Amino acid sequence: MLARKYEKAKSYLDSFVNYERNTSFSYRRALKLKRVRHLFDVLGIAYRRLKVIHIAGTKGKGSTAHFCAYLLVASGFKVGLYTSPHFFSFRERIKILTPQGLQVSNSLISRSDVVRIIHQIQPQLERLRFSRTLGKLTFFEVYTAIALKYFIESNIDFAVLETGLGGRLDATNIVNPCGCLITHIGYDHTDKLGNRLADIASEKAGIVKKGAWVVSSSQRRSALEVIRAKCAQLDVPLYLFGRDFFAENVRLKRDCTLFDFCFHAFQLRNVRIYLKGNSQVENAALSLAATVLFNENMSLKSEQSKGAPGPLKINTMNFKRGLAETAIEGRFEIVQHNPLVIMDVAHNPSSFSVLEQNLKTYFPHKKIILIFAVSDDKDVKAMLGKIRYSRIILTSFSSPRSLAPHQIRKKCALKETIVACDIHQAYDISKQLYTKDSLILISGSLFLVSEAKKMFTVQAASDKYHHYARI
């Protein structure tokens, strides 16, 4: 019975316009914060009660959001985590993390809660589905409403929210955050956010609000100038990686990364993370800085008001444990060792630069067999120009956004390519090309990686079945 109700609820959610799967829309006309505010007001979602860390940027948002959430849980708090997109189920976007002894309980929103919330809000959603003045409700706006309603009902202590597209017009931007994190800004969604880095930065910095503090990655000058101007305009403090807080003595090892962190008087040595690469060190440092700032601001409020919440429980061992426990799929993820297969959700030139650096660091002598598919709004030529590969297999994924392999080949003037109809055929071909001196890399889009993960999950289940059948 629940399974049928859940499938019905999913189908209902899928009936809303989805700009993640269809990129042919006008960013400034289609996305309206006024519509989102009206939606939340009609639904009676008291989002202003939430204590929020809000995260925007071009790359590293998801990892940074997870680091933040795990650090807060390690401090003893119940945390709501809202990220996008997802691999298998949209429920992955809405999680509640709670401390459970020395472990972290990481729970997706349940199917029954999805059904219950949809049942509660469906009549209002139908009335608001389309308005002449406010336009069409979107899939992402409805999901955001479900997430924040669920977080409030679950009585969380903090919410960590990752923006979807941009920041200024994003549905998550209705909140009044305690702090804003801006990860590295690069060129992506240029048809929506603008062709200049300053224009993109302006959209990302749109999450900055009066009364919050801002923590930023190192940025190119044009992006940094925009962020500085926004902070100055709103009279909010800006803390920069490499100027105000630091990650030093970085040691990249095969299975983990170690570094030392310093911010104000707070120091943390021999921090260990299991997400690979220098970019993840910076993401972890941003999250640490945000957690320290949370503590400082909450301590001040606690002193000023007896009713205010007390400070975070800063404990260096807990912080280290929180960072060490942080895990997120699809980030330079080794999914198989024989053959050696790596998946990465890199999907723009900036993230492909990071991917190439990780390949040089961890597998400098391996020949790369690249299985590649990409969305039709990406700068595919710039992406492929960032990465070395010995063979490339072009394929597609089951989304209207998928760029056809022959179009990829034409845009990039590629000559020696192999074309596969889907990830299954592409992987079969890659195994035929594989030698002990190579690795198979699956990248270009989260959609592609999602389909690859499903393929490997089915394969693992089949292998396990045959193993026990032989026994």
List the helices and strands and how they pair.
Blueprint: H1 2-13, H2 27-30, H3 33-43, E1 52-56, H4 61-74, E2 79-82, E3 94-100, E4 103-108, H5 111-128, E5 130-131, E6 135-136, H6 139-153, E7 158-162, E8 179-182, H7 190-193, H8 197-204, E9 213-216, H9 221-234, E10 238-240, E11 245-252, E12 257-263, E13 266-273, H10 278-304, H11 316-325, E14 333-337, E15 340-344, H12 349-362, E16 367-372, H13 380-385, E17 391-394, H14 405-412, E18 418-419, H15 423-433, E19 438-443, H16 446-470
Parallel strand pairs: 1-7, 1-8, 2-7, 8-9, 9-10, 15-19, 16-17, 16-19, 17-18
Antiparallel strand pairs: 2-3, 3-4, 5-6, 11-12, 12-13, 14-15
Number of domains: 2
CATH topology (fold) name of the largest domain: UDP-N-acetylmuramoyl-L-alanine:D-glutamate ligase
N- to C-terminal distance: 36 Å
Strand content: 15-25%
The helix content is 40-55%
pLDDT averaged residue by residue: 92
Alpha-beta content class = alpha/beta
Count up the helices: 16
Instruction: Kindly report the oligomeric state of this protein.
Output: single chain
Computed over alpha carbons, the radius of gyration is 22 Å
CATH superfamily of the largest domain: Mur-like, catalytic domain
| CATH architecture classification name of the largest domain | 3-Layer(aba) Sandwich
CATH class of the largest domain: Alpha Beta
Which sheet architecture does the biggest sheet show? 8 strands, mixed
Q: What is the molecular shape?
A: globular
Number of strands: 19
Q: Residue ranges: pLDDT <50 for 5 or more in a row?
A: none
Which strand order do you get reading across the main beta sheet? 4-3-2-7-1-8-9-10
